[in-house]
Request: fold
Amino acid sequence: FVWNDVRPSTVFHFLFSFAPTLLSSPHHSKRIRPEDYVNILVNLDGSIDDGEASAWMTTMACCDSYQQRESVDKDSGNGDRRVAAILMMLGPELLRRRRH
Reply:
């Protein structure tokens, strides 16, 4: 198992499963069904590189919105509040490794 074999978007979406409810998932933030979101990430020819960049941009937007919501409502309820910070630190590194 090599980390380069794992798509960054897979890691991003796995981490979202541990997030507080104030951190919207990418498909919720785009107001589309999960399967439509996946179709955005993967091209018909199977290529994924543009989709990975799109997934990262959407993830950053979700984290930005979360930070704004969380600053108003400190009691974010369930989930791990650190997920947004982890995504913001980990994302650029995963994408960099994917390119090399």
